[in-house]
């Protein structure tokens, strides 16, 4: 195994040497990048419709991509995958709790010092990426106990404010500081504002990378999400969408896998709770909408908006009653995995909608591409690819083999699923591996669960994923043949890395070459070409995806067989082993949050320096640090 320190060193050298990457756009000043990453926001429950600034400043001024997916539908694993550019099966951050994954595992694996902001920083971007010394999890989902750590410093409690307002104020200060101005007069004016740090001209010439990650509209640990006081009367007339897969009839519910098939229809009282939840979600998002407004106006005022990419998305999607499951994420279905994804920035057409697919794995290579880092110098272990060409040409008809492999979306999960709000109760046996095809002429969702259940939906005709074709598909039937192809792809993608993720067909073609039953006068590079009946025998014979045990974490022995057949390293060459890592178990002394809900109208524009006046550092006792 290569020691992590050496990998890091090698990556640093490459990134420093990247200046020679010759592209016309790289001769000019490189663009700033802002990533807005909400928590648990849906694409399919209409939440974007209730965000006027997102509509006006991002959707109208940029391009919306309707086929963007997370590859794992849960916060911590999804964020780890985005920041490392790797599938969860390669980061091994597979759940929000030990042993699957948590902050302690992220740190123990050394991945916390080798991820996207560090790479952009090495490429000359201004970033603040020092991780907090303590895990701030207990307060992350408590809107009225806003605790923040600035660039690795001791955590601070902002009494008297709503969490989303503190984020707004901090983001504004950071963007104000790093957005390059036209220099000259404004620079002098700014210098005279004594509270604000002064940046040297050299610093001003550095582009910046800023991630804005509000907790909204995530639930609080004790219940519903909590909007700012000023938004509590908004949208009272709105109704939660109830598409055809909302609380469906037994006929459909019984076709589902694992614990889902035993669910009872939701009662009226449960539906009433979903309705309340829906309102609080769209109200909580209004605080995020204000952040979008403020940031865009600030950048426009500084004449840098034209050279800034803003990417708006979420860590995972959300369901409210679809397939009879009350509130939550963690399922492979469209509501949980297909995300809001809007890009505004240089060269991105305005007001366009695009169906070109992408995943969160693609963001790291895309941002490195924007930063003009030579692709030869990207960290070797990235599983995605740059989407920048798609952003610039969202209507382009991608050429055959390229687009056929981009249409393949691998989504995986280990561990349990949580019913949020209703008792926060969990359902185990929620480990599954899925593959989704999002082609223009063919679209499927195929899944294998640890319980042995199999699902096949022809999503081209059944976008609500109701009619499970798997149990009905006879081996020789068209659907049976399709399942063999999808299983073969999943066999590759479930443990893929790097190129085998970007084009799993190459692995299957190599197997075909070695197989006498495979016709060698033709090849396949898409579902369409692979469906040629002459490949039936080859695909039928391949070993099938299975997970003998329902484990709460990824175990190499429970994941096989593998294709390529050598036992996969599952990313372990690029991170430190985490066996027996320790998670903090000793909670600190409770921190007293706001007694009254905060975020009234008079706090709409409160700046951070005013908030700082009431802020205080958390004590060692509150942080649970035992001192001897
Ligand atoms: C992933 O994490 C689990 C739990 O910590 C551990 O048992 C397993 O060995 C790890 N797998 C790999 C491939 O690193
Ligand atoms: C089509 O895609 C392949 C694979 O990425 C690429 O090598 C080739 O240059 C592309 N052809 C065109 C015409 O864009
Ligand atoms: C999990 O699945 C296994 C295998 O199908 C089954 O025996 C077990 O009862 C399930 N457990 C739960 C909690 O559903």
UniProtKB/TrEMBL annotation:
Keyword tRNA processing: no
Pfam families named in the record: Sulfatase (PF00884)
GO MF terms, alphabetically ordered: glycosaminoglycan binding; N-acetylglucosamine-6-sulfatase activity
Signal peptide limits: 1-22
Region annotation Disordered: where it falls in the sequence: 561-593
UniProt keyword Signal, yes or no: yes
Keywords per UniProt: Signal
Domain (Sulfatase N-terminal) ranges: 31-371
Similarity comment: family membership: Belongs to the sulfatase family.
Protein name (Swiss-Prot/TrEMBL): Arylsulfatase
Naturally occurring in which organism (per UniProt): Tolypocladium capitatum
């Amino acid at each position: 195994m290569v020691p992590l320190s050496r990998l890091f060193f090698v990556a640093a050298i490459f990134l420093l040497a990247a200046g020679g990457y010759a592209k016309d756009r790289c001769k000019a000043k490189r663009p700033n990048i802002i990533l807005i990453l909400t928590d648990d926001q849906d694409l399919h429950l209409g939440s974007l419709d209730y965000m006027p600034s997102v509509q006006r400043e991002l959707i109208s001024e940029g391009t919306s991509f309707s086929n963007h997916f997370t590859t794992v539908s849960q916060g911590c694993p999804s964020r780890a995958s985005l920041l490392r550019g790797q599938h969860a099966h390669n980061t091994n951050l597979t759940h929000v709790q030990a042993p699957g994954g948590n902050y302690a595992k992220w740190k123990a694996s050394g991945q916390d010092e080798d991820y996207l902001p560090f790479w952009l920083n090495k490429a000359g971007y201004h970033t603040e990426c020092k991780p907090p010394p303590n895990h701030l999890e207990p307060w992350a989902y408590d809107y009225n106990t806003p605790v923040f750590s600035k660039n690795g410093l001791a955590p601070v409690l902002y009494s008297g404010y709503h969490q989303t307002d503190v984020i707004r104020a901090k983001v504004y200060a950071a963007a104000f500081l790093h957005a390059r101005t036209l220099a000259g007069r404004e620079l002098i004016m700014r210098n005279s504002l004594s509270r604000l740090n002064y940046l040297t001209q050299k610093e001003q010439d550095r582009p910046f990378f800023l991630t804005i990650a509000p907790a909204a509209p995530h639930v609080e640990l004790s219940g519903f999400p909590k909007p700012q006081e000023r938004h509590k009367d908004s949208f009272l007339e709105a109704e939660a969408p109830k598409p055809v897969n909302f609380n469906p009839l037994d006929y459909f519910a019984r076709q589902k896998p694992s614990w889902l098939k035993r669910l009872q229809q939701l009662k009226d009282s449960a539906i009433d709770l979903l309705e309340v939840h829906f309102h609080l979600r769209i109200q909580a998002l209004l605080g995020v909408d204000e952040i979008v407004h403020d940031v865009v106006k600030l950048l426009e005022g500084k004449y840098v908006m034209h050279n800034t990419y803003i990417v708006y998305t979420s860590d995972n999607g959300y369901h409210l009653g679809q397939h009879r499951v009350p509130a939550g994420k963690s399922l492979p279905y469209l509501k949980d995995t297909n995300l809001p994804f809007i890009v505004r920035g240089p060269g991105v057409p305005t007001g366009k909608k695009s169906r070109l697919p992408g995943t969160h794995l693609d963001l790291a290579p895309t941002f490195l591409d924007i930063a003009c880092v030579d692709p030869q110098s990207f960290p070797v272990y990235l599983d995605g690819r740059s989407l920048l060409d798609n952003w610039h040409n969202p209507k382009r008809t991608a050429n055959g083999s390229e687009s056929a492999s981009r249409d393949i979306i691998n989504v995986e999960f280990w561990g349990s699923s949580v019913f949020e709000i209703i008792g926060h109760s969990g359902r185990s046996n929620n480990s599954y591996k899925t593959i989704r095809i999002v082609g223009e002429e063919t679209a499927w969702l195929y899944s294998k669960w640890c319980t042995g259940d199999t699902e096949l939906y022809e999503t081209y005709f059944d976008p609500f994923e109701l009619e499970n074709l798997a149990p009905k598909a006879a081996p020789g039937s068209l659907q049976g043949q399709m399942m063999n192809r999808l299983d073969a792809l999943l066999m590759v993608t479930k443990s893929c890395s790097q190129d085998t993720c970007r084009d799993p067909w190459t692995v299957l073609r190599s197997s075909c070459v070695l197989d006498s039953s495979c016709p060698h006068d033709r090849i396949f590079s898409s579902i369409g070409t692979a469906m040629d009946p002459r490949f039936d025998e080859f695909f039928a014979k391949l070993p099938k995806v299975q997970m003998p045990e329902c484990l709460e974490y990824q175990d190499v022995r429970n994941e096989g067989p593998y294709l390529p057949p050598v036992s996969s390293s599952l990313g372990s060459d690029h991170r430190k082993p985490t066996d027996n890592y320790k998670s903090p178990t000793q909670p600190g002394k409770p921190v007293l949050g706001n007694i009254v809900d905060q975020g009234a109208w008079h706090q709409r524009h409160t700046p951070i320096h005013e908030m700082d006046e009431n802020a205080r550092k958390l004590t060692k006792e509150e942080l649970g640090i035992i001192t001897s």
